[in-house]
Amino acid sequence: MSDRLIALLAEIEAEFPTFRIAKKRTSRLQRAIDVALKIVTLGGQRVYMTRYHTVLFGTLWVPDSWDIMSDDDKYVLLRHERVHLRQRRRMGDVAMTFVYLVPFFPVLLAYGRARIEWEAYVETIRATAEVYGLARAEDLRAQIIGRFTGPDYGWMWPFPETVRRWFDEALADVRAELASS
Ligand SMILES: [Zn+2]
Fold first, then answer.
1. Ligand 1 mean position to 112 CA, how many Å?
2. What's the CA-to-centroid distance between 84 and ligand 1, angstroms?
3. Residue 54 belongs to what H/E stretch?
4. What spacing in Å lies between the alpha carbon of 152 and ligand 1's midpoint?
5. How much distance in Å is there from the Cα of 54 to the middle of ligand 1?
């Protein structure tokens, strides 16, 4: 493992002693969520087991692609997931799980999830800029807009212009942070 990844894992374990990383395929609940997501998104979300990382009850559930990710990509991902761990501590399991797993029908509930997810994506943008540079962070724009407005998260916030504005504001903040550090 890279030094950067080892250091981040140590920080996360110090802050969240029960944190662990587990494979989605080994969990009956995760497999059930996969089936439920396929149903409620009418097949739009097909990559839950193969590509999506999910924090639930303090465990990071990783998909099949975890084994082939680079250490730097794992580092960026864990920076995102640490935000969700902190949100869970702030909100509690019941509120967090409700906002997280029941977002798919009413738009008002999905807005709660979109804000939770956005807070973590700001960290993704920041960590990507730190590890790979600002140009790579800027390249995330289309992908992140697609996630918020498409089937991956159940059309969580299907307003590309709003997400684009959030992205540009976050990128401007990160650019300013890097320039001043
Ligand atoms: Zn997230």
1. 13
2. 7
3. strand 54-56
4. 11
5. 7
Q: Enter the tokens of residue 151.
A: 């089937």
Ordered mean pLDDT values, 10 residues apiece, the chain (181 residues) = 95 94 86 79 74 79 89 96 91 75 56 86 97 97 91 80 96 96 83
Dihedral Cα 111, 116, 91, 11, nearest 10 deg: 180
Distance CA 111, CA 96 (A): 13
Q: What SS3 state is found at 156? A: coil
Residue 27 CA to ligand 1 center (angstroms) comes to 19
| Alpha carbons 151 and 60: distance in angstroms, whole number | 22
Q: Token pair for residue 53?
A: 């990382």
Global model pTM greater than 0.70: yes
Q: Is the separation of the CB atoms in 60 and 81 below 8 Å? A: yes
d(CA 68, CA 171): 28
Helix, strand or coil, per DSSP, at residue 111 = helix
Element of type H or E holding 136: helix 134-149
Report the distance separating Cα 169 and Cα 150, nearest Å: 21
Q: Are strands 20-23 and 59-62 parallel, antiparallel or unpaired?
A: parallel
